[in-house]
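Thread: quick sanity check before group meeting

JM: Hey all, I'm pulling together slides for Thursday and realized we never actually wrote out the predicted structure for the chain we discussed last week. Dropping the sequence here so it's in one place. If anyone has concerns about the input, flag it before I start.
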Amino acid sequence: MKCDKDLLQKLKELKKTLHGNEKHRVNRLIKRLMKGDSLLLLKAIYGSKSAGRQWFLDIDAFLKAIGFVSNKAAPCFYSIIIDKDFVILLLYVDDIIIGATTAALKVKYYDLLRKKYKMTFNEILTDFLNIALTRDRTKRQYRMFQAAYVESFYETFQLPKDASVQTLFTENLRIPSTERGDLTPAQRGDLTPAQRVYVRNFPFRKLIGVVLYCNICTMPGISYAVSNLAKFTSKPVFDACKELIRLCKFIYNDRHRRLTIGGGRAIVSFSDSDWAGDPETRRSRSGGITFIGNTPFAWLSKMQTDTSLSTMQAEHNTMVPSIQNGIYCKKIMNASGIPGLKYKLAVSHMLDNEAARAVSTNPSMPPKAKHTHIKHNYVLEQYINNATDYGRVASADNCSDIFTKPLGKNVFKRHNETVSENGNIEPLPKRKKTICEDHFYCPR
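JM (edit): ok, ran it. Output follows.
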């Protein structure tokens, strides 16, 4: 490789973004090129630590140059508004989805991208990041599933199959994460030498990783099991390995279930908690899900960071992340600028604890609820600004219960159908118009 001015300039710009050894290597390379030395390129700069950042800056600048506007709430979501028509673009590293109101607009912007970057183009969206998609034009719905991905990792890990497994976790099972000194060996369930070898050779980290990807993309119903098992990643125990195998069996049996996109536009979130559910720390688990119409948008199952002193506090703490997801969803839609897509009404939030709902709408904090003061202010502020309204849902109908504890077969099946397939999600009646404008903490 001989020195040229363009290459030298690019290397100098790259050096400004690097640190440590990489910066010194590029600096030595610049000096040798300036001396007139010929160099053999052994490794592309694509492999450097800052390659991802440099790639994003490059494609972000190009997309904005051809007219795209980055969403202030989601920087990798771009749009162009042309009168009543629009083009949207979703960017994930170097995988791109382009959608438009007309085929001509879609082809036009694909051609512009192809002139700049080498890429392949599929006119119909059937697969993206190991997620298969099918479209129902009559119902105006998309369905997402990962059957091929599940079958692939099942073959890779040579996992056993069991068609009888219909729940993801043994009902009411609580796996202790530490060994307690006050228990006898029989109570602790000390392992045999063969079991110790099994745990030591078990690919726990790799397997929980592929299961987590299924959970993030298309399987909200397995969130509780994944969250509960992930804490054993660094130090697996025998029961956790067994339950992970059981979870994989359930995922394989349920691999053809499809996450439905479409049906309604109202934003509705649900939250629930399992008070003092951890047998060791007595911390509570939060669970929640946010829908756009009947479409699951965001879900969570997470152990709370502090110990709740009452069911009201546990439920109140659980409300916060679900409310944040609902508000975030509203901001993304409003910032897109798509004609006719403007959310002015409050987000509906449903919970099954009357005390938590009453506190959330009461400006004066009751004396016995002082311990929830900071989160109370956030929840109350959303209510005062009409950004969120709070409603009561019966415990039996609260689908977010699936994110908090191991459920029985019938209850799990009913809630899993609601959060995965096309459940009938109804917003609160008589929602108020939001008072405040959307605020973006990191404007672009």
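AS: nice. The first strand starts at residue 69 and ends at 70. Residues 179-188 have pLDDT under 50 and may be disordered.
JM: adding both to the slides.
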